[in-house]
Design brief:
Elements (H helix, E strand, L loop, with lengths): L2 H24 L8 H13 L3 E4 L8 E6 L6 E6 L16 H17 L14 E6 L8 H7 L8 E8 L3 E4 L4 E10 L15 H15 L8 E6 L12 E10 L2 H22 L2 E6 L11 H14 L3 E7 L7 H5 L4 E7 L8 H5 L4 H23 L2 H12 L1
Parallel strand pairs: 3-4, 3-5, 5-12, 6-11
Antiparallel strand pairs: 1-2, 2-4, 6-12, 7-9, 7-10, 8-9
Helix pairs in contact: 1-3, 1-10, 3-10, 5-6, 7-10, 7-11
Amino acid sequence: MSKEALFQCIDEQGEALFDMASRIFDHPEGGGKEYAAAELLENALEAEGFQVERGIGGLETAFRATWSNGIGGPNIGILGEYDALADRGHACGHHLQTPAAIGAAVAMKKIFETTDFPGAESAGVPFTITVYGTPAEETFGGKITMAKNGCFSELDIALGTHACGKAAFVGARSMALRTFRVTFKGKSSHAAGAPYNGRSAADAMLLSFNGIEFMREHVKDGTRMHYTIAETFGPSNVVPAVARANYTLRSKDNAYLSELEERFRKIIQGACLMTETEAEILTSENTFAARKPNLALAEVAVENLRQLGVPIDRESVRDSGGSTDFGNVSVIVPSALVYLPYCAASGHSQEWVDAGKTESAKSCLMNSAKVMAGMMYDIVLNPELVKNAQEQFDTE
């Protein structure tokens, strides 16, 4: 048994996997409504002999597919996304993720079912592969909802991949994220004839923006705070009675994010006191957790990237600037998210959309499948890796 045979099995699936990714790309879906993508992926796994559970974790387009090589051993989860950005399409490379996961899972299944090669006694090593289909990462964070409904806790290891720029790396910390929608309520009046009778909701909103700007100097490094006007105020000759804004807070520390929220709420209260208005704060149902790094798994990932000859970033293990619901999995089970070269432009850009069906996309898909398969191969044949990952998880 060898990794070369494993990788060859993935190469043999190449055209079918890329066709699957292309079909997802051509029919972008998101926000938990990824019906066509989920069905395509579920059917592909069933055809390969995986036991598929559909509509799991409280989401219609989430699924779990399992295959076991005997009883016992580690349960290795491979997580894949397939949602697109609203009005933009697949500008984040998610169409590649689950086809890559399927390629890795199928290759592991086939090679361990085979018994006519040197070292075939290893085929009897027990383990389970669990492929999780996870929708809505770009919106409400499907993995967060799934985790709340009991998903992922049965796993010993969780792996995933994501497209990136020119060089591969393993994600260390990401940013915890919480969003808010605030409706300010004032009193309407004629802006010229009787402005003194009005109380401007717009003033309260703008004061909240200023408050956040003044707070920027007094937060820990790496904190991110964003805001945007959600709706226009109406005609300029009327004191606005209603104003709505959206806010996002981010931190690499889950506990510090809660501190930021307390200060943010005080800013909203202060803006209302200054303008004699009121505010209704709606908090996002799901909070994106900061990803918990696992250096033991990162070392396995980097070694496999080297074996594959994939260009690796100078910082082979590094933080990523955004937020991901994979972070909510990483606080449940030892996890690794590996980033593979795809497009040199910034993510969520038109350039990433344009790259969706190129040779670069196919290369990203194939390398994603191979690095996950290689990691699973190492973990299955070296039980100490699971122990090391768990020890790292417990001490982080």
